[in-house]
Every structure is written in structure tokens, then in C-alpha cells.
């Protein structure tokens, strides 16, 4: 019997209304400035004129499968990477494109202070999400 692992990468499509094309920064991982997200400023989003959808994902948690389900600490999170890449491929192919993707919860598994493993998880997370279409803003919560 094969054990299949499930990573919680919940995808929700939510229908809302909006009138603004979102602005993109070169560094998609540092968009929060002065308690706002670049491209999501209140002044630019006061009136909704047309429908849009967005993606909400949670707990990519690079490293969790190995640590908790396989009881190992070899520094591998290939399964989480593969699942996230599969999701990004699907999001990039959507027509129309989502207005943004928001990822909530634990992005990586290791806590601050668990270097260099945590730094590698963060670097891999950023590398994987570079594949997200540049026309789809990424929001990390």
C-alpha cells in the first residue's frame, strides 16, 4: 500500500469586483511598504468595475513532509517543491489570469535561528515562486 502525502496548498477561487490593473515591483518578495502592499493601495482600489479572481494558498512549508511525515532531517523538501511547482504551472495557465496569488501560513518549516537549513528553505521558496507569471502579483502573509 502506497502512502500518499498531502501538503496543504489550498487553492480557492474567489469572485470579486475590481477596476485596477496591479503594479508590479522587480522584487516580488518585498512589496509591503508603510503598512501597504505596492499595487494594492486604497486610493487605486476604491471602485470595483469588473470581475476578477485570485488564488489563496496556505502552508507551503518547505521541509515539513521530511520532518514530520518521514521522520528525517536530511535537508530535503523536493516533494513540497514539486507540489508547489505543479500549482504554479496551473495558476500560470489560467485564463483569465488571477489578479494575485496570496500564500498564507508557514512558507517554510524551520524556525528562525535554525540556519543554514532555514536559509536554504527560504532560498528554494523564492526560486520556485520566480516561476509564477510576472503578471500575477504574489502576496505573502
Automatic annotation (TrEMBL):
Transmembrane segments: none
Signal peptide: 1-18
Presence of the UniProt keyword Signal in the record: yes
Keyword list, A-Z: Signal
Superkingdom as given in the UniProt entry: Eukaryota
PANTHER family hit by this protein: METALLOPHOSPHOESTERASE, CALCINEURIN SUPERFAMILY (PTHR43143), SERINE_THREONINE-PROTEIN PHOSPHATASE CPPED1 (PTHR43143:SF1)
Protein name: Calcineurin-like phosphoesterase domain-containing protein
Organism of origin: Medioppia subpectinata
